[in-house]
Please model this.
Amino acid sequence: TCGYGVEALEASAPYREETANHYYTYAARTARNLNAQSLVVARSGIGVYRNYNGPRTGDKMNMNTEYPHTLLYNKNYQWDFARYTPHVVCINLGTNDTSTEGADPKLLLQGYKNLYLQVRSHYPEAKIVFLCGSMMNGKALDMAKKAMDTAAEQAHKQGDNEVYRFDFTPQNGDL
Model:
């Protein structure tokens, strides 16, 4: 979603800000193809409860803590949610939470539930879609899918039928 390394010349190139470009991401391309307005809240490495290689217990700052702010890690400027009312909010998190050993499935689920509640409180009419990203596989993919499925099911049980799930096809490097 951030465009991490999307302009790198080789897949093995180290991360550099100069090679990240949201314009070429699936999110931006999808919005352009649908002629839809898009607003993205993203930061490379951030998780729903635990950032890349963070502690099992979670990071003090993650998407749940940073979502309400206009500027990352700066609590002085709160986002004015009344200025932009989306029809659809896509939540594509979990890759960084599960990308290294030590993710806690219960805390991951709680992170999704917390973010869902936060989004829903600001956008009561929006469709919310939990996306399972293409960069996961194996146990990490299974853990993220299970947590997202459970969060969506619990929202449905609470009467919110505008919560959805979508799984991207895992990338394998063929392209």
